[in-house]
Design brief:
single chain; about 350 residues; alpha+beta; 2 domains; 7-stranded mixed beta barrel; 3-stranded antiparallel beta sheet; about 30% helix; globular
Length: about 350
């Protein structure tokens, strides 16, 4: 039976790759494909940018620079503004999230060729947390192509006001554009129409929910598009949920992360399955297969990291162990994953998000 399931999955992936090419004309391979850190310098009124925390964010004219493979400095004019909601607040993060707005004519023959607007996730309370969140995205990339690619960068600020001085470059990461992510999967983004969880392709929804459970992220909802994007196949009309923003997850463990009060949880480190009620565990058993088959790759992601602290790597591997112990134990798996079926639980609570990015 297991061999039959694996054959169907492999054959399905083969057909999938034919239908949804990994690389499309609109996707630039030179930005998100390399694993090495991209070193960038942003020049302009950084002080004004960092202080833009209230109301509608305003764009500033700036320059972003990097060195090409011949060590020649490439400088690109662009517009930059702050974005987001929670992490944009002054009392939460030292550096707010940023939106890079390129003019396409200025990025030809550069590492940003083909890009228009890109999200840049800045360190909120120290470099280590932004790097941890980057690795959460990398787990999602291992599990499915229906995920946002990311590129780890180091940012050096050159502030024209001379009010902000950064001694060392800061870790940050770029997030793939939503349209390009959808196009790479042969799909298109769905707008803000009301979508219910059961409208999402069932097995892919379970896999997405299991990924959120693995990293212990409860800060998401389909209905209010809380840290979720929806993409749709143009012919089959099937819809898929693509998660992002993992700073409230237990695996990242930021200093400011707390579970929503409605969930009645003690800590973000506590895992809580937030899919809808499914009593037939066979659906979960099928969804476990990619997690089990890709376990070594997920563990290697952390074991081989030169950017994470050794203590964090060890604790994270143990944290991952707990997930695998659960999905490999039928009784534990049933108890954990059927939580949304409990009448007295908080499995049906919907978190209403505030996404302004």
């Amino acid at each position: 039976m297991m061999l039959k399931i694996r054959f169907v999955l492999v054959f399905g992936l083969f057909i999938n790759n034919l239908a949804y090419p990994v690389q499309t004309i609109g996707q630039t391979p030179t930005l998100f494909d390399p694993e090495e850190i991209l070193e960038l310098k942003i020049s302009g009124d950084i002080n004004r940018l960092v202080k833009d925390r209230k109301g509608k964010p305003e764009y500033d004219d700036m320059t972003i620079s990097y060195r090409d493979q011949n060590q020649k400095e490439i400088s690109i004019p662009l517009k930059i503004r702050t974005r987001g909601n929670f992490r944009r607040q002054q009392n939460i993060c030292t550096y707010p999230p940023i939106l890079l707005n390129f003019s396409k004519k200025n990025v030809d023959n550069t590492v940003f060729e083909g890009q228009d607007k890109l999200k840049l996730v800045m360190p909120c309370k120290g470099d280590k947390y932004v790097v941890r969140e980057y690795y959460a995205y990398k787990i999602s990339n291992i599990l499915t192509p229906q995920s946002f690619k990311v590129r780890l960068v180091k940012i050096d600020f050159e502030d024209s006001s001379n009010k902000i001085k950064v001694k060392e470059p800061l870790f940050a990461f770029l997030i793939e554009d939503e349209d390009q992510m959808a196009e790479r999967n042969g799909m298109f983004p769905v707008g803000q129409d009301l979508i219910r969880p059961k409208q999402i392709e069932a097995q892919e929804f379970i896999k997405m929910s299991l990924f959120q459970y693995l990293i212990a992220n409860t800060d998401w909802s389909i209905q209010f598009r809380q840290n979720i994007k929806i993409i749709q196949h143009p012919e089959t009309k099937e819809m898929f949920a693509v998660p992002y923003d993992f700073d409230f997850s237990g695996i990242v463990m930021t200093t400011y992360a707390k579970p929503a009060e409605e969930l009645e949880m003690n800590s973000v480190r506590d895992r809580r399955y937030r899919g809808y009620c499914i009593t037939n565990m066979e659906h979960f058993q099928k969804a476990f297969i990619p997690f089990i088959e890709l376990k070594d790759k997920i563990y290697h992601l952390y074991q081989s990291s030169p950017h994470l602290e050794n203590s964090y790597i060890k604790s994270t591997l143990k944290y991952l162990d707990e997930f695998y112990q659960i999905i490999n134990n039928p009784k534990l798996a049933e108890r954990e994953l059927q939580y949304p079926c409990l009448a007295a639980g908080t499995g049906d609570v919907v978190i209403k998000g505030l996404n302004n990015d």
